[in-house]
Amino acid sequence: MTTVPLNTTIHSAAPTPVLALLNPARLVRLFYSHRALIRQFTIREIHSANRDTVLGWAWVAITPAIMLAIYTIVFGTILGARGNRPPLEYALWLFCGITLFHLFTEPMNRGPGLVAGRPNFVKKLVFPLEILPVSAIGVVLFHTAISCVLLVVAKAVVVGHFTGWELLFPLAIVPVALLGLGVCTLLAAIGVFVRDLRHIVNGPLGRALFFLTPLVYPMDIVPERFRWLIAINPLTSVVQFGRQCLVDGRNPDGAWWIGLGVVTLAGLLGVVAAYAVFTKAKRGFADVI
Amino acid sequence: MSSEVGARAAAEATRDGAVGAAAARPGPRSAGVAAGTPGVKKGATTQPAPAAARPSGPPVVSVQNLGKCYHIYNKPEDRLKQALLRWRGRQYFEEFWALRGVSFEVFPGEAVGIVGRNGSGKSTLMQMIAGTLVPTEGRIEVRGRVAALLELGSGFNPEFTGRENVYLYGAILGLTRRETDEKFDEIAAFADIGRFLDQPAKTYSTGMRVRLAFAVQVQVRPEVLIIDEALTVGDNLFQKRCHERLRMLREAGTTLLFVSHQQEIIRTLTSRCVLLHQGRLRAMGSPGEVLLEYRRILHEEEKRWTTQRLEAVLKRKGPEPKRDGAAGAGEATPGVSAVQVPCAAEGAAGAQAAASAGGTISTPAPLDMPENPASYGDRDATITRVELLGSDGEGCSLFYPGDRVMVRVGVRFERDIEHVNVALRLRDKLGVKVYSWGTLNQDMATWGGLRPYDDPTGAGGEHAGMADPPVLWDRSFEAGQNLTVEFEWICTLGAGFYEVQACVTHEPTPDYRNLRMLHWLDEAAFFEVKIAREEYFFGGMVDLRMRAAVLD
Hints:
The structure holds two protein chains of two kinds. By secondary structure, chain A is mainly alpha-helical. Chain A has helices at 18-21, 24-33, 35-50, 59-78, 87-116, 119-123, 131-158, 169-193, 197-212, 227-231, 234-246, 254-288, and one strand at residues 8-12.
């Protein structure tokens, strides 16, 4: 039936060498060989989100619009976090930060249940589980892309002119997506064994991240002695970078450029490390699910 | 050689054969088991060649000393303790080996059946070959693409339509979109679910989901296809089509690994068979022989269960209440001790106890029957021998349709008793009861004026013109007395392997309604029926003696 030499698969108790796990080329090959499956999964999931709803795709705009309105009123006006920015510009500024923030937290929130919630894929199918975090990132990237379009439209309406620095905004997306992928993969692997993870990640951790990232307030209203807390958050420099180029339309501060570079590098290493953990842990998935 | 010994030797040979196969590991090529059938008649060859010619070349699946261990934690917190305090060297779990020391090889184009009871490790083995479970020890080498029908349709997304799921499932199985496009019509035709194809999968019945999944799955043309109980869901028509498709795949070179509890499917579809029992490889060889061994295991456990239940029931009842025969001796023996006699040796001890307690019977003679774990009963009577005889009165265990078969059953009464019944039961290889008949059946027929043994057509001339047989039920027996009953019939069974079970019961009423088992013996004898095609043959399991009248 097959004329090409057959690949021999070996299943044994011997563990995979750690160095082989840490080889980035392995990841590239893995993702490339499963590109069709990744695409299918991502598209299906995007479709399934609004399937059978009455308003359908309108939800993509309705949810952020309502959220923005509430945040603008509560944080911007009532709590006075918007400083001297006009409400509409504050909303734009807020939306820009939250778009990047969600690019990280969505995959993070989904991580713990990504594998644990699909027992069939673990036990009943010969399925490349490694692609699940990738397709989770694919879904959130799609939503980010929609938000970017909305951001550009909003900027045209609110500010009225573009400087060209806005074109740097995608540079802010890359490190967040990498961080999100790494964290999602790691949580997916651990979440199979530690079911409590979901409660930690979705609850206290998510809340803390939201307030420890300068999303609803500008950096300069933070008291000096708490600044470090905000600064060590890798999302801070990315959010600041994104806002300065997209909302303010200027070349971002040098500090944020450096921060961006560091976070991108860390993101890349994080993905490789997270996948090494995932692949190692994967051998035990079927035993505990 | 007496046929009793012959039949037992046959049983022993099969058992040894199975053990031999297991012992032959890890050289599975030598695993074809040939159990000789003693007492051969008409010079026919004993068994068909057990295994089909095996394709040469390297094995496509090679399982070497495979083991899978699960850690059983009694409390959830033990799992955490084990994870955190591992370095202290204490174990907080118990080991459970779902599978251990299993080795075998499968060659290209073979169809190998895996049988065993629930929990014997079949699914664990399949999952490890498929790659969803990682072995604890040993290794598996698989050459080529493996597709596993572990649970059909489990990869479906219930929200999506069948059409969308076909593409999704195809992608999981490694098909590109274009390949799925090309095969879509064939998939749809095979699944045959009509307009449901464009409905969400959540509206599907189990059968529809399985059909669609199977249709996609077989398009992949894997080198190894694992089927774990998956096809038992569909209706007969679908199963038939599945099996046709599997046959086609096999002809195209796909190797099949097949798990099923349906012995008939295993028998027809596989060329070799592996029997797992409690995580160990118990036997390997031709499907017929391995299934026989499997049936023996099932049988042993069923019997153990029956015996336990019987003990429990009788313990609840206390001493046997309906002992109208030998009252004195009966009262003297505690009911429980008479019941707990799962094997012949204890039976003898029980009888001895009864003798010393009642003082009515002399020391019982040593039992003729070797220790047989397949027996139970109150042992007020013991079956001492069961012989299979041919028409010449010699021991025989191979018969052809039309042959006269005789089973001679020897019974010894351990205490005074009346109203007894001696009966036989025939079972086929699958454990299906083919026929049962006892002296009480005959007594009842005689009282009713029927003569079933007198064949009006004269075809069964052996019985014709016999006088009414004496009624056994009316007779009473004394302790120590022996009785021989000969059962005789003209073999009308189809080709196959049969088991004889014998029993002696106490029947206070002549209608089987108040039966009390005195001694029941499983596997009392075995015989084989063959068909000589050139002489006279029919299909199926029983010769109905049809006649065709040709009318122009």
